[in-house]
Every structure is written in C-alpha cells, then in structure tokens.
Amino acid sequence: MPDVYNWQLGRPMAYPYEQAMPKRQWAFVMNINRCLGCQTCTMACKSTWTFERGQEHMWWANVETKPYGGYPYAWDVKLLELLDKANPGGMTWSESDSDERDSALRAAPYGTYDGKTIFEAADSRVTRPEHSQRVLGYLPADAEWATPNLHEDVPPAPAGEKGQWVRGGLSLPEHKAWFFYLARVCNHCSYPACLAACPRQAIYKRPEDGIVLIDQERCRGYRKCVEACPYKKAMYRPTTRTSEKCIACYPRVEGSDPETGGCPMETRCMAACIGQIRMQGLVQMEQDGTWTKDRQNPLYYLVHEAKVALPLYPQFGTEPNGFYIPPRWVPRGYLRQMFGPGVDHAIERYMVPERELLAVLQLFRKDNRIIFRYEIEEGPKVFETEIHGKPFTLYDDTVIAFDEHGSELFRTKVEEPLYERPPERLNSI
Ligand code: SF4
Ligand code: SF4
User: Using a 6 Å cutoff on CB, does residue 245 contact ligand 1?
Assistant: First the structure.
C-alpha cells in the first residue's frame, strides 16, 4: 500500500491509493456542549433525502446519546474492539516532538499516533487471499440498524455502582452520572474507508470540495463500503440494491440550489440546528493533506489556532473532516478515546475562552450561508470575573462574517442585546 500523510495522526499511514487532495475540503465543527438532542437536524436530513421506499432505516444524519446509544447499534464499541484485537493495547499516542514551528503544529497538532489504523490493521487479518480485506471493519446485522435512538437520554450508573441504568434517582454532584448527545453525519473523510474498500471504484471524492459520493450507476451493492466505513455512514438500500450515503447537500454547498441565490450554503442538518451547535464550511488544502494556513477562516481558527475542536476517533485513520468541541462534564478518559489526546487542552480553552474565541463562537448559526472569513471589531469591557480560579474578562466585541467573495454576510455582538417591551405592547396572553 502507498503511504499518505495523515496530520491528525502526525505521521504517514498506509492507504490503498496515492495521496490526492481536493483544492478545498468540506468540513464542520459541532459544539457538543450546546446540543439539546432535539433531533431537528436528523429530521431535516430525513425529510430532504431519505424519505422513499427502501430508505426507512437510513438516517444519514443522526444524534445518539453517548455512551450507550449508537446507530447502528454499538458501532464504535465494535470497531474499537476489532482494532484492539488486531493490535492489542496499541491505541496510544506519543507527545509531539514538534519544535513549535507553525508548519510542524499543523502537521501534528495532537502528537503522533503509535497504533494501527483500520487500513494498517486490515493486513494482519488476511488468512486467505479471497477473504482479503483492504479495511478492517464489519457488516452490521439488520437488527442493528433498526433502533436509531435506543438508549436516548440514559446516563450510566455513577462510579462504583453496578448496572447500566441509574436506579433510585440521581444525586449530586450531578456529574457522577453523565451522558451527552453526539450528532453525526458522514465526515467526507480525506482518506475515505468507503472509497478504499469499493471493488467497483464507484465511490469518488470531488476535487472541488472533497465531498465523497457513490456513483449509483456503478454501484452493484456489494456493501464493502458499509463494512469498511468505521462511522457506519454508508448504508445499503434493498429496493435499488445499491449503497447510499450522505451527499453533503452538494447543490447547497455549490450554490446551485434555487434557495441559495448562487451563494454557497450550509447543509440542511447544519442550517436547521436549534441549539446553534453547528458550523460548516470549506477549508483550503495543501497537497500533503494539511490545511493551508487561513487564520481568519472560522473553521481553521477553531481547529488549528484555538484547538478547541477535535476529530472523531482520529485513530481509525480516515482523517475525518468533522470536528467536535468536547463536552466538559464527561470523564476525560472516555473523551480521550473518542477525540484523541487534544481533549484536556480543548476543554480548558473552552471553559475559560479567550477574547477571540468568544467572538468566533458567536458566528454559529447566525446565517445559513457559508462563512469564509471573519473579522473582529473591539468593543468595550463589560465585566471581569474568575472562572475555575482563572481570570476572565468579557468584552462586547463585534464579529463580522464574510462570504466567498469578501462581501459582508452579517455582524453580531458578543453581548446579546436586551430589548424591553414598552408597557403599551405588553403580551396580553
Ligand atoms: S464517514 Fe464513512 S462514508 Fe463518510 S467518507 Fe468517511 S468512510 Fe466514507
Ligand atoms: S438540531 Fe442541533 S441541537 Fe438539535 S439535536 Fe441536532 S445538533 Fe443537537
């Protein structure tokens, strides 16, 4: 297998195809701390793309309650077990030996992953050539696709207590029992496992935006992509006998959907988000697979400058382009397994945000058009306080969002304005 560079692992990695990067890459950041599990995103996708016969079990966008929920059932537990079996105890990371130069930080921001990826672990499982697998994976049983919301809102028992369910109510401190909502869509990975596994070469990654699509004419429904995708975001449709997956609402991203008026727009699941947890955009790519430095792109800032947003299970090796601000009330060991070694830094930065981070966080869901650049106009100091023993100052800065061509999309402030309804217009209900 050729070697490609995976910046999330801080090292080259084996992949069945030569390295080839798109000019721009579709990417998103989700702030888990704000998700309320309303499933509006799930239904926005369902009612747009997967409402026909044969698609009943298909949820391209879903929100699962961690740690017990999962769609398909236990997808991540099963994959982690397979990876550990192929490389016992191998999912470890080394500190980065980066010399703090900017290029080194962008190429290995979380240190180096020492273990095997799903591409590297696949070789060790080959016993007979006819059974050879390019990617370590498994095919979920039909029943595992049947319950997309099983275990919703179910926290694990507090430490020391037995059982999956919390009996006798919860007691303070409340974070002894925890759960969180993990919203998921296809990550339009830089090294897609679905694409790597397809024997028909029916899956391709678009050079203009990195969106990964399945050519329905070429697909023969072998389900190799379903087996290989570690996130289980490729799904089989029995009525057409082909596999389907999230298409990243590409007409909206292109600006060719009638609703967009020619302006690149965020996907349906992003635009519908009630909790304002989501931001999706396009980032510039280098040919070695790293992100081009673009300090004023909000996604670049959140991932590479503030480092508050982290990839989901980077150890799988597909270089997913979905990033998450981890939930601050969840045991760190669980989060480190899910988001890698950047978790402690990310939570620390998020809990006591610096001035620029607080301003950038205001950009989420103020507009459905894709933000390509932001600027900040400094405002007055509002107050000073301490958060967890650290000084914090709030400024009422204005953050301004710009589109692809540099035109202003909107401006918003850190302090939400307060409007007092005049007595003559009081609500009469
Ligand atoms: S998340 Fe899965 S389906 Fe989506 S691009 Fe990555 S490997 Fe393919
Ligand atoms: S719409 Fe937003 S807040 Fe609601 S479940 Fe989806 S990601 Fe969470």
Answer: yes
Domain ranges of the chain: 3-356
Residue of 34, 41, 64 to mutate, ligand 2, most atoms within 8 A of C-beta:
41
Model pLDDT for residues 135-185, shown as the tens digit of each residue: 999 999 999 999 998 888 877 666 666 655 555 445 444 456 788 999 999
DSSP H/E element including 385: strand 381-387
C-alpha dihedral, 122 to 126 to 131 to 135, nearest 10°: 0
CATH placement of domain 3-356? 3.30.70.20
For 285, which DSSP code? B
Q: Determine if ligand 2 sits within 6 Å of the CB of residue 63.
A: yes
CA of 212, nearest ligand number: 1
Q: Is the CB of 203 under 6 A from ligand 1?
A: no
Global pTM value: 0.93
DSSP track, 35-67: -----HHHHHHHHHH--STT-TT--SSEEEEET
